[in-house]
């Protein structure tokens, strides 16, 4: 849909079985390109974060959303928490580390805070029996964060 989400699904070639495609699950939830934009202290990253906040405030004001500055601050704070649990770009390129196939039942037990069956059904992916989970520790931590942060903040 082109909307940033807590995690993202992609269908592409199975890294271990080149004769088929697989459904992959990746960490998500960031509006900026990757975790570095939230966590690094160099001047250029500080400038990126300020520009991003200004952008969020502008969009919210144009949409008539009240209290845009405070809401932008909550968005940035939440995304910063997500960035802290994300894998680095380098670690996310480790083909062995990101290849973690799970059945639907294993996925539900792995991160029970999310209703995977409902999510997959809504995305039209209900028939996929196996999901290859990349960044497993980040996905689990994101699911826990989802359960602990008020729904209004996510909205």
Report what the structure shows:
Helix content is 47%, strand content 14%. By secondary structure, the chain is α+β, with helices and mostly antiparallel strands. A 4-stranded mixed sheet has the order 1-2-4-3. The model has no long low-confidence stretch (mean pLDDT 93).
Keywords:
alpha+beta; 155 residues; single chain; 47% helix; 4-stranded mixed β-sheet; 7 helices
Short description:
With 155 residues, this protein is of the alpha+beta class. It has seven helices and four strands.
Helix/strand layout:
Blueprint: E1 7-13, E2 21-27, H1 36-39, H2 43-62, H3 68-85, E3 101-103, H4 104-110, H5 116-122, E4 130-133, H6 136-148, H7 151-154
Parallel strand pairs: 2-4
Antiparallel strand pairs: 1-2, 3-4
Helix pairs in contact: 2-3
Structural class: alpha+beta
Question: Hey, roughly how much beta strand do the residues contain?
Answer: 5-15%
Rounded to the nearest angstrom, the distance between the terminal CA atoms is 16 Å
So how many helices?
Answer: 7
- How many strands in all? 4
- Whole-angstrom Rg: 17 Å
Order of helices and strands: EEHHHEHHEHH
Mean pLDDT: 93
- Strand ordering within the main sheet: 1-2-4-3
- What ranges have pLDDT less than 50 throughout 5 or more consecutive residues? none
Gross geometry: globular
Helix content: 40-55%
> What characterizes the major β-sheet?
4 strands, mixed
In quaternary terms, these chains amount to single chain
